[in-house]
Design brief:
Elements lengths: L9 H12 L7 H6 L2 H15 L10 H11 L4 H4 L2 E9 L4 E4 H15 E13 L3 E12 L6 E12 L2 E8 L2 H8 L11
Parallel strand pairs: 1-6
Antiparallel strand pairs: 1-2, 3-4, 4-5, 5-6
């Protein structure tokens, strides 16, 4: 069994950096071995910045806590109620987009049908004027997979008042499949 170490704050910083840069951020042992000496120094400084004391370290904004709790609810409308009527929910790892509250409910229902014990544990985040970044752990057990998985997740929520106007989930699909004991090209039956 693989042991996974989650660095509080790292996924949030990397997700925010990816959003700001408009690109993909690569981190971890593989990225470190590919980096030049100057890049490795920058990576060390980034890790030091992540580990630096923060105000309300890892505080999860209320909407982030409600969003994560709604995923654990048996009522799939709980999540949809957090969104505006014209909301857009995007799963970046799967390149899937769902529209409106009905789309959000459809996405949650399908996710629960495929993944048993599905959970998003919010571990950190921050709120800006019109947006919230939620850092956490996405876990569950894909139907028919030999093992459960638990991977880092960052979700960016764009707000309109107290409701979510759009959300974007960022996680590593390949890591989920690997931890689950499934091949990299696996797709659910029927796709």
């Amino acid at each position: 069994m693989r042991t996974r170490t989650f660095v509080p704050g790292l996924a949030t910083v990397m997700g925010a950096a990816a959003l700001i840069a408009g690109g993909i951020v690569v981190a971890g042992p593989a990225a470190s071995s590919m980096a030049s000496p100057g890049e490795r120094t920058a990576q060390v400084k980034m890790r030091q910045a992540v580990d630096a004391p923060q105000h309300k370290k890892n505080a999860v904004p209320e909407i982030g806590r409600r969003w994560a709790a709604a995923w654990a609810s048996a009522d799939t409308r709980d999540l949809a109620r957090l969104y505006t009527r014209d909301a857009v929910y995007t799963d970046r790892a799967l390149d899937l987009v769902f529209h409106g509250r009905d789309g959000v409910a459809e996405w949650e229902t399908g996710s629960h049908q495929l993944i048993g014990d599905l959970e998003f544990k919010a571990t950190g985040g921050f709120r800006g004027r019109d947006g919230v970044v939620v850092e956490g752990v996405f876990s569950g057990h894909i139907a028919g997979a030999p093992r459960p998985f638990a991977v880092p997740l960052v979700t960016v929520l764009r707000m309109r008042g107290d409701l979510i106007q759009s959300s974007d989930d960022y996680y590593n699909r390949g890591e989920i499949l690997s931890e689950s004991g499934l091949p990299a090209d696996w797709t659910p039956t029927g796709e």
